[in-house]
């Protein structure tokens, strides 16, 4: 792997936290992701299932772990099954984990080859009364493709129809929202790499550069600094493109006098960063661009201070709406009449700020979470206000990552330049240099 070894105590702690939430006499089964076909005989690069990684740190395909805290068979409370290496696999695929390596990485003592699993797993399942199975329950996940967890869940329910089945995701969602110290350190490493990439872009950007060239500069820095790559498809949106929320074609040439909105983040050790900055192509904001930029920045700063324990996400979103309303009034984009006549389900500010202000971040850029859970210390969320004025071809979004603590919000992205003066100074210094 590109990343440094992770302390296996992280995965031991995660398994302990999960098994403490399991009902008695139950076994939980987790599968790795599939190798996803790309075209012909090729596959997309492998990315481990976030939940299996969270519980084991094992980062290769064809991996399964079982958790059975009440198992009466000694030593089988935790088991991992991994692919057996042979001469052919070594020749074509390279190194695969040995049993010793898998145990060292995960902290799981019982490691078996995958071809040994059918007999062992059958015995364990027959000793259990209940089975936890894992599926993707992200509220925005929709696909017609059945992944490995779904396929294996169907097989289990057909083979063992008299067991009682439980969902692993409700437990995982509660656990994932609260980040441990080690997880926060991994997120900070992803943020540090993202910061290096942003500085690289500041040195590189000038009129005539194409969006894909900026993407290439970012990708170069990510790989150079041992990130897995991008945590999500990067948005490099210049001119009118920065009013397209999920623009990711990145093909347009950046022109004099325009802005470039860049939404990107490195993934390090399967943990994500997520940062957005909007910068002037020529290194100098126009008066209007600067005016809108400062409005967005004020909302970001004020919204970040609202991330305190006990606050509900609905309360938080409502307060941010009021902040944005004030800024849009000052910018002359909405009027008091618009506010008085607004549809409560679509307030006036939504014309220029139409997306949510925050999401949880961790192993995934949109991490497992519950929108109904109040904020707690240990949660990591983005803060990403934006103002999109299509008629002026000005779209500005700024995004930082904030850790919720009992002592107040902590901006994990504080080292990434965001003040307009600093950005202009850094871009100007490079031009003068």
Strand order across the largest sheet:
6-5-4-1-7-8
Low confidence ranges: none
According to CATH, what is the class of the largest domain?
A: Alpha Beta
Q: Mind describing the biggest β-sheet?
A: 6 strands, mixed
CATH homologous superfamily designation of the largest domain: Creatinase/methionine aminopeptidase superfamily
Number of helices: 13
- Helical content (DSSP H or I, runs of 4+): 25-40%
List how many beta strands DSSP finds: 19
What is the percentage of strand-forming residues? 15-25%
End-to-end separation: 37 Å
- Overall average pLDDT: 96
Which overall shape is indicated by the principal axes computed on the Cα atoms?
globular
Q: Per CATH, which architecture of the largest domain?
A: Alpha-Beta Complex
Structural domain count: 2
Instruction: Supply the helix-strand structural class.
Output: alpha+beta
Q: How would you explain this protein's 3D organization?
A:
The protein is α+β, with helices and mostly antiparallel strands and 433 residues long. The chain folds into 2 domains: 9-176, Creatine Amidinohydrolase, Chain A, domain 1, CATH 3.40.350.10; 181-432, Creatinase/methionine aminopeptidase superfamily (Creatine Amidinohydrolase). 36% of the residues lie in helices and 17% in strands. It is built from 13 helices and 19 strands. The protein has helices at 9-19, 50-56, 87-93, 99-106, 117-127, 148-159, 169-176, 181-204, 211-224, 287-305, 313-330, 336-340, 420-432; strands at 26-31, 37-39, 42-43, 64-67, 78-82, 110-113, 130-133, 164-167, 229-230, 235-238, 259-264, 266-268, 271-272, 275-280, 380-383, 386-389, 394-397, 400-403, 410-411. Strands 6-5-4-1-7-8 form a 6-stranded mixed β-sheet, sandwiched between helices. Helix 1 (9-19) crosses helix 2 (50-56), helix 8 packs across helix 9 and helix 10 (287-305) packs antiparallel against helix 11 (313-330). It is globular. The mean pLDDT is 96.
């Amino acid at each position: 792997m590109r990343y440094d070894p992770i302390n296996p105590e992280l995965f031991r702690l995660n398994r302990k936290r999960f098994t403490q939430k399991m009902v008695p006499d139950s076994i939980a089964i987790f599968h790795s992701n599939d190798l996803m076909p790309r075209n012909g005989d090729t596959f997309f690069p492998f990315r481990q299932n976030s939940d299996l990684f969270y519980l084991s740190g094992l980062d290769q395909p064809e991996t399964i772990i079982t958790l059975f805290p009440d198992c009466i068979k000694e030593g089988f409370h935790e088991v991992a099954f991994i692919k057996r290496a042979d001469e052919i696999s070594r020749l074509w695929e390279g190194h695969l984990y040995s049993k010793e390596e898998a145990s060292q990485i995960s902290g799981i003592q019982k490691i078996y080859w995958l071809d040994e699993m059918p007999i062992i797993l059958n015995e364990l399942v027959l000793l259990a009364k209940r089975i936890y199975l894992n599926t993707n329950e992200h509220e925005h996940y929709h696909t017609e493709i059945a992944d490995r967890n779904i396929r294996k869940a169907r097989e289990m329910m057909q083979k063992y129809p008299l067991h009682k089945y439980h969902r692993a995701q409700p437990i995982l969602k509660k656990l994932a929202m609260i980040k441990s110290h080690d997880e926060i350190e991994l997120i900070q490493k992803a943020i540090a790499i993202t910061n290096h990439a942003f500085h690289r872009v500041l040195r590189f950007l000038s009129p005539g550069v194409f969006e894909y060239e900026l993407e290439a500069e970012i990708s170069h820095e990510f790989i150079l600094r041992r990130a897995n790559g991008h945590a999500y498809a990067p948005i490099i949106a210049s001119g009118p493109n920065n009013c397209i929320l999920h623009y990711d074609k990145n093909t347009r040439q950046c022109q004099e006098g325009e802005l470039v909105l860049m939404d990107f983040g490195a993934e390090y050790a399967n943990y994500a960063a997520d940062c957005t900055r909007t910068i002037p192509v020529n290194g100098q904001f126009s008066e209007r661009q600067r005016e809108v930029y400062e409005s967005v920045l004020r909302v970001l700063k004020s919204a970040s201070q609202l991330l305190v324990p006990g606050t509900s996400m609905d309360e938080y979103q409502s307060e941010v709406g009021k902040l944005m309303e004030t800024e849009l009034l000052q910018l002359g984009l909405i009027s008091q009449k618009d506010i008085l006549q607004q549809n409560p389900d679509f307030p006036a500010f939504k014309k220029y700020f139409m997306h949510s202000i925050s999401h949880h971040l961790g192993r995934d850029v949109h991490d497992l979470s519950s929108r109904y859970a109040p904020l707690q210390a240990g949660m990591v969320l983005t803060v990403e206000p934006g103002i999109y004025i299509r008629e002026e071809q000005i779209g500005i979004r700024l995004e930082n990552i904030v850790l919720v603590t009992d002592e107040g919000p902590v901006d994990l992205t504080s080292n990434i330049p965001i003040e307009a003066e600093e950005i202009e100074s850094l871009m100007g210094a490079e031009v003068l240099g």
